[in-house]
Amino acid sequence: xxxxxxxxxxxxxxxxxxxxxxxALHLTPGGRLVNLHWGERISPADAAHLAEQLGDxxxxxxxxxxxxIEEYPVExxxxxxxxxxxxxxxxxxxxxxxxxxxxxxxxxxxxLRLCFEDEHYPLRCTLNYRVLPDCDVxxxxxxxxxxxDAADGGIExxxxxxxxxxAPFLTGYRMSHLHGLWYGExxxxxxxxxxxxxxxxxxxxxxxxxxxxxxxxxxxxxxxEDSGRVWSGALAWSGSWRIAAHRSPNGxxxxxxxxxxxxxxxGVLTPERxxxxxxxxxxxxxxxxxxxxxxxxxxxxxxxxxxxGYVRPVLFNSWEATGFGIDEENQLRLAETASRLGAELFxxxxxxxxxxxxxxxxxxxxxxxPGRFPRGLRPVVxxxxxxxxxxxxxxxxxxVNPDSDLYRAHPDWVYHFPHRERGESRHxxxxxxARPDVAEWVHAQVDGLVREHRxxxxxxxxxxxxxxxxxxxxxxxxxxWVDHVRNLYAILDRLRREHPGVAFETxxxxxxxxxxxxxxxxxxxxxxxxxxxxDRLAIQHGFTQVYPPRVMLGWVTDDHLNRGGTPLxxxxxxxxxxxxxxxxxxxxxxxxRLAEAARHIAQYKAVRPVVQQGLLHRLExxxxxxxxxxxxxxxADRRESVVLAWLHARQFRSAKPPLxxxxxxxxxxxxxxxxxxxxxxxLLMNHGIALPLTGDFDSRLLxxxxx
Length: 707
Ligand code: DGJ
Description:
Shape: globular
CATH class of the largest domain: Mainly Beta
Oligomer: single chain
Structural class: alpha+beta
Bound molecules: (2R,3S,4R,5S)-2-(hydroxymethyl)piperidine-3,4,5-triol
Number of strands: 39
Largest sheet: 10 strands, antiparallel
CATH superfamily of the largest domain: alpha-galactosidase from lactobacil brevis
Number of domains: 3
Number of helices: 13
Helix content: 10-25%
CATH architecture of the largest domain: Distorted Sandwich
Distance between the termini: 48 Å
Radius of gyration: 27 Å
CATH topology of the largest domain: Beta-galactosidase, Chain A, domain 5
């Protein structure tokens, strides 16, 4: 069918080739689509051979020949596994009887489309597979179309997964996933999935959420950072979602995932209203968890981020320094100091708009507060620009405080049920962004702010999940779970088109909106409100499993977790592992501290191209390596490498082994910048380098340049 998508007609086998993997499908004689292979490369002839060995289609009791391998198991017929698709037709018939109706390749032969029609009802379901030329990711999504007319009535879509991923037959299955809470996001956990059991990760909040992240990795329990076979998936969706790994009693493991959470109907199909699921991307790596992350980072940079090459500026953010006590005078003072330090962007966080003296009021009234900014934001914006910095502004446009002019004028604009309380969280309610008029209003507000205040950077926050998700005037109010996110995407896409020079930070009460859908329209991610260095190392370890350092924003703040004062260098080195930001009250720092900070910022700028654009190796994970954590970045041409290493706590008489680096050029000689010493790449990789880390919270940055 194309160079990367092959079809063996007699065996009814499709093979999708990525640079180092194959993904093979087969249509059985009985018309079921099954997965034959996902892993290292095999030929179409090999795949046909596998198909021959499948044996007969059979059904016995609650078991079938396809348990654990059916590519997109619908609800309907004799099937008892987690359904990828569940629908209800107008006459209340539930379930689908799919009949294969054709295959085609589109997008210059990179996308395979497999079409199925229901035997009786007007429903077409198309499975899409997109193969990328430069990484091992296969993108999957599904189109659902009502092929009848209005007289057939609507088709309720109860579940519509983007994909069900079939892991190969392994002796055991372990699932890696990220879980968390506010102040403790993206914690990596690995758990065995036993036969007959399931592991479900989900968000029911209307946003990606803090509790789990829509990403998984599966291995047989033996993979390590740099070895072993790993199968991984990530969903491009920023609303409620569900990913369920089911291990059939026969031992096979499948992972289904898509938008919506249990109990919510995701949409109603009409002839005018088709439904397309978000993309669920998947990849296989034969080079361990590190190899999988390397592929994810390449995919995000090459196919997701709108501006991957944008050099993320060193920013200052006002939130921890001035909180709600913000005013023109203190922002000007902070801006002067931030610019002296070398900051390139100054972000005015929450508290700048009308009535916002605390979190109880103001959301929705997006004009500068006359009490604290009597001359508007203009003096701050002008001075920031004069100082050569970009101007950034915080907004939370999907929200409203009941104590606001917006809410007083439009109490019906929030999610609500007529006979229920409007449950507040952080004293705020969620605007019904599924309403076209509200979405239009939100766009107009933000667009106006960007134009009026010459904004270079927008921090888009979302501080509370949905509740009482009603829309009294709407027949199918459940659709807001999907349409809120779609309209959010449309607003962000439109703003990006209208203001191509503006960068966007995604934030949701810390790291609650971190996913491929949001990354497709963001430049930077706020990873957590927790800026403590030690906690951040764990958060960053989880974050980089799938998302690249070039979007991972960290701030150096005043030490506030009562660790007895961690060294400024330690805090800088932690934040320098991604996009460096400063969040401390720099106006109160003494000259010595300011001079040290300026040195770290200058050093970050010198290594930034390698940190933001290079390849990440997680050398030692937090919690292992005898209280030492280390990461390394290598430029694409292997000319430069940066190592960041942190010693958490000193132990008497406990020597640390040399740190072995990765990815350097064998046979090349590297200079350790600032020392005049040289090291061979082989020595650094095969023997390692001893690090002079001695005290509690000690850290080092090593910068190697090939001679
Ligand atoms: C939550 C964010 O994570 C913080 O950085 C800050 O912007 C606050 N919201 C402001 O309300």
